[in-house]
Amino acid sequence: MSIKDRYTAGPHGEPRWGAIARDAIILLVVIIILPKMWPFYSVPTGSRGVVTQFGKIVGIEQEGLAVLPPWQNLTLFSIRAEEANIENASGATSDTQPVNVSLTVRYSISPDKVSEVYEKYSHNGDLSSYVQTATHEIFKAVTAKYSAPDLIAERAKVSTDIYAALGSKLAVYGAQVINIDMRNFSFQESYMRAINSKVEQEQLRLAAENKLRTVEAEQKQKVAIAQAEADAVKATADGNAYANLKIATAQAEALRVQNSALSQSKEVLELRRIEVEQTKADRWNGQLPQNVYAGAPIPFLNVSK
Questions:
Q1: Torsional class of 174: left (φ above 0), alpha (ψ -120 to 50), beta (otherwise)
Q2: Model pTM greater than 0.70?
Q3: What gap in Å lies between CA 185 and CA 192, rounded to an integer?
Q4: pLDDT, average across residues 153-176
Q5: pLDDT by residue (tens digit) across 58-74?
Q6: Are 78 and 124 in contact (CB under 8 A)?
């Protein structure tokens, strides 16, 4: 039977409304029911498939192809990294200074906690509201342990403390912290002015101390140079004195020996006189003096001998 014969009748081709209505209803039922009866599902990367049966969780499908019977349903659940922005989280330091900060918390659902999170907190893996609430609470608790100056000076340690405390807190919700970005700390304007003034004074103090250390180093260098020069002069003087002492000692020893020799033998004295006369004779040019005064001796003429 052709389609025309199926839906028309009579010599003039009147429509068979009953058959048309019946087939339309069958087609509509197929369109509605077929997706429900389709057994093949795909779980994309970074997701898990939560399998429910009449509302009850009966399994978790990994990434890839999942084949389910018609009476079970598959819901995609993201375990990718999510991001929660916390603007102007407020707290107070241990010295009662109000402080605000903006944070970005990146987190993800632990794969082994998908069923628990789906059942208790979220059907798609979005826990941003829980993360924001927990972050505000943790920030208040951590900042209360630090004074305002320490909160600024030890920012890295503060971030580590927030990371550790928030990690423990979010573990209750089946999430794990990936990282935390703290964009800035802000205090009251009057306190910030006081901090800036203190920083300026500290910088001036450090500059003065550096200048003082430089001057002291220069003075010590000058003292060291002067001391070295004085030591050199003293060493030279000591050397000269020692040399003079040795010379004087040698001369005195020579005189002592000569005197001892003279006292023991007169021939030595006579020998010296002969040596002196010999020296004069060696130097005489053979000429007698032209003018001889009365009683003056004539060289090398001694009639008494």
A1: left
A2: no
A3: 11
A4: 91
A5: 989 888 888 888 888 88
A6: yes
CATH of 82-187, one of 3.30.479.30, 1.10.357.10, 3.40.50.880, 3.40.605.10: 3.30.479.30
Query: Which value, in Å, is the radius of gyration of the alpha carbons in the chain?
Result: 59
Q: What is the pLDDT of residues 75-119, one digit of tens each?
A: 899 999 999 998 888 888 888 888 888 889 999 999 999 999 999
CB neighbour list of residue 12: distance below 8 Å, 6 or more residues apart: none
b/e map 31-59, b = 16+ CB within 10 Å: eeeeeeeeeebebeeebbbbbeeeeeeee
DSSP string over 135-183:
HHHHHHHHHTTS-HHHHHHTHHHHHHHHHHHHHHHHHTTTEEEEEEEEE
CA–CA separation, 82 and 179 (whole Å): 11
Q: Which residue has the higher pLDDT, 135 or 269?
A: 135
Helical axes 189-264 vs 266-283, angle rounded to 10° = 100
Residues 6+ apart with CB under 8 A from 46: 63, 78, 79, 80
Which strand ranges, in their side-by-side order, compose the sheet holding 82-92?
Answer: 82-92, 98-109, 175-186
In sequence order, the β-bridge partners of residue 14 are: 9
First to last CA, the chain: 191
Going from the C-alpha of 116 to that of each of 126, 127, 132, 190, 218, the distances in angstroms are: 13, 13, 20, 48, 72
Q: Where are the domains of the chain?
A: 1-37, 40-78, 82-187
C-alpha distances in angstroms, 38 versus 43, 45, 56, 72, 146? 15, 21, 20, 11, 60
Question: CB–CB of 124/72 below 8 Å?
Answer: no
